[in-house]
Q: What sequence folds into this?
């Protein structure tokens, strides 16, 4: 039996403390509901981390022992310390998986990984969303039918300012007419990244079985295939080099030219 995937579920955990409706829906936080569902899926170990924890709950030990990090943020993106962002970014490049949910599109870590503004259109009118599965043979869509329909969601619309995904697997249509790239995959360095749109704090999105199946599938897809530090070593040649003209210098050394 393969070793369990170690998942850290990160959440700002602010709305649940300040908004009565959100607290009623997610009394222990959205991250707790997500973590519980992932544990029930089998083969996944979870732990929780939040913005107000020391080092945002993302200490060196936590990050270095995480296989996949799930990120949910909304109202406090700017409070995330840049040092922690760079710590996470480094680990993703080394092989850790990163799953960014809903309004995490505007987080520092998502922008740092993709290098774009990650901006979009939005509207909160509790409208219907039909999220089409356009890659039914992809590991993330295993067990998902032709589409997932959510009766009440926040609209996200194009243009979504992201690099072209390596693989686009979900496209959403909203009751108001907009469309959106709702499931996007990238590889950065040795790590895999998945952006998944559903998940507004005032709707019970993370109690939806199909949504949580997608997230569990994404955890298995994004798990590391290995970790490798990124460096640029000066290495000796494998073969014996032929003699060179002594007038040619080494890179970085000044050569006098007549």
A:
């Amino acid at each position: 039996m393969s070793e369990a995937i170690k998942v850290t579920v990160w959440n700002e955990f602010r709305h649940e403390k300040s908004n009565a409706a959100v607290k009623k829906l997610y009394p222990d936080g959205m991250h707790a509901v997500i973590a519980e569902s992932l544990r029930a899926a089998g083969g996944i170990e979870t732990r929780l981390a939040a913005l107000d924890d020391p080092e945002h709950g993302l200490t060196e030990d936590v990050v270095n022992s995480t296989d996949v990090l799930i990120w949910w943020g909304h109202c406090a993106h700017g409070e995330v310390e840049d040092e922690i962002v760079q710590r996470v970014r480094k680990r993703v490049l080394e092989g850790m998986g990163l799953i960014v949910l809903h309004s995490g599109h505007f987080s520092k870590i998502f922008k740092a990984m993709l290098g774009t503004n990650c901006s979009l259109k939005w509207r909160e009118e509790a409208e219907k969303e039909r999220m089409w599965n356009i890659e039914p043979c992809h590991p993330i869509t295993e067990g998902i039918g032709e589409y997932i329909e959510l009766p009440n969601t926040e609209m996200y619309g194009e243009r979504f300012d992201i690099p072209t995904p390596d693989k686009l697997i979900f496209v959403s249509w909203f009751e108001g007419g907009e469309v959106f790239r709702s499931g996007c995959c990238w590889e950065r360095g040795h790590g895999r990244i998945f952006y998944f749109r559903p998940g507004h704090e005032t709707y019970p999105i993370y109690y939806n079985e199909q949504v949580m199946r997608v997230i569990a599938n994404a955890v298995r897809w994004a798990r590391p295939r290995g970790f490798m530090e990124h460096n640029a070593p000066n290495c000796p040649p494998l073969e014996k080099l032929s003699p060179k003209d002594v007038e040619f210098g080494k890179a970085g050394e000044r050569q006098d030219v007549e």
In short: Residues 209-222 form the longest helix (14 residues). The chain has a mean pLDDT of 94. Helices lie at 15-18, 20-25, 30-41, 60-64, 82-94, 108-114, 209-222. The beta strands are 5-11, 44-50, 68-72, 97-101, 121-133, 147-157, 167-174, 179-188, 191-196.
